[in-house]
Amino acid sequence: MHTCKTRAHGLAIALALSLVVSTLSASPDEVKKKFIDRRFDGGSISTEKETADAYFRLGVENLREPSTSDFAVEQLGKAIELNENNAEYHYQLAEAYLAKFEYANILQKPFIAPKVKTQLELAVRCDPSSTLYREALIQYYVFAPGILGGSFEKAHEQADEIAQRDPYLGVLAHAGIFSEEGEGERSLSLYQRAIRSQPKSWEAYHRLGLYYLNVQETDEAITMFRKYVDLAPDQANSYNCLGQAYQQKGMYAEAISAFQKALERDPSLASLVFRIAQLCDLKGMRSPALEHYQRYLSMVPRGRAAEDARGRIRLLTK
Fold first, then answer.
1. Fold adopted by 200-265
2. Of 22, 37, 163, 258, whose CB neighbour count within 10 A is largest?
3. Residues of CATH 1.25.40.10 domain(s) within the chain?
4. pLDDT tens track for 186-206
């Protein structure tokens, strides 16, 4: 799946933050006990719902770093046990399995991939009106081999369902599938049709930019992502995508600037902090590289990238 996302990810914010902090080291019984005594505005709270939400938020929190994906899977699974009809729970569990898949060995991968598919299909079943979950399922059908449930035919079926709800997004979904089928001209034709139909909508520029990035047509990708930034200047992802295109072009100063603007819009993007550190390191910018490696460690203190950051800090401070 693409690094540039098509979306960013209830209880009150204050409660959500307290759940993440207070349950990090708690056992399941302790987690549940915390909510038995809680009250909001003098009224009782559904303890089961809040417990599920606590597990869910713990799981999502641990999706920042692939090395904690096992814990994320465990917590999201517990959330689903308490609320199996929540589409977002299933979607995020699919994300957790995907993160786990990335670092699994070759013998484990065939057992993990179908779990991604199952959770995405459940998300669609729980919320059939959501184009987000259908697009994620399309990504699975497109990139998974047939033996693991991949199918261009099923991907197009999901795109048809999206088109019934939003014709513009349906065209974009079919365009993305055709590009992966190797039908580049057909794909480009649909992207251009989408742009003509809604020239002030950013989605087509974003996805056409991804297409160009994937086929190494970097100048065209930069052009599309600049338009994406113009139309969606408040989105961290628009600057993230532009930064990736600049990085692919070897325009590292411009990439750093774009990634920094993405972080201004979403300071939680730890992966971008690490990427900026690496690019500063590459350019010999010792002080900002150190600053960003240290910032990354404050956000993600464990995992492979964290160990890499510690190693670079040791070398840069010698």
1. 1.25.40
2. 258
3. 200-265
4. 999 999 999 999 999 999 999
